Amino acid sequence: MQTNGLLLEDDFIELFVRYDVGVSISFDGPIHDLNRVDHAGRGSHDRVLAAIDRVLRYPGGNHLLGGVLAVVDLRSDPVAVYEALKGTGTPSFDLLYRDGSHADLPFGKSDPTSTEYGDWMVALTDAYLRDPSPPRIRVIDDLLRLILGGRGQKEGVGLTEYGILVIDTDGTITKNDTLKVAHVGADRFEVARNVTEIDLLNFVATEEFADYFALQEPSAPACRSCPELGVCGGGMPAHRFSPENGFNNPTIFCADQLVLIGELRRRVGVQAPARIEPI
Length: 279
Description:
9% strand
């Protein structure tokens, strides 16, 4: 479960512990309040930090807190973001690229071939790899595992298949909510369903779910023949969208990912395959 950190009183935390529900908390570091305000327009920085601390101080809090999630904002200093996220005391954190697609470029990205996000991530990676006692950073760790021949642990990189469904608070079943980035209704199934009315195991065996599930596998020829496909994974489906080709494009962050993966390969001394056969 992901939360903005504002509702984590001890009774909520106890509920999560009782039902073994992991918690991730969004926190963007020094520039948190630029994007994350409440309905009154007030920044939530200090309240989110207090929520993280409350979870970590709770018995078993390290197990309960899945980590802190930060969105890459090119207005921020990557080293300052790293230090702020580590300073929360969380055992791990993750970084997500800003929403965007070929139809609507992510904030700060000048064109599909530019590498602003990749350069930002390389700078943060430098701070991470210099740190003698770092927390875990999921996306960097996953990329390193994949480069070294291992397996990623979460969607977004690599070719491991994840059958993600989202259940809204009213019980409505939707596709991965990141698909909202592509176009209005992209995260919705053709027929609305509620978790209180259907059998989930039967639903995931339907053709409609299979079609949605297939979206996570990149289909663009440039991706299918790319030597880094097994590491990059083609990116999130929403980031591949264009009105002309649907999801049949490389991720809008393709150039950024190649910069980051190339730097990680250089650090561990593992070269990319010279070529691969198209899949």
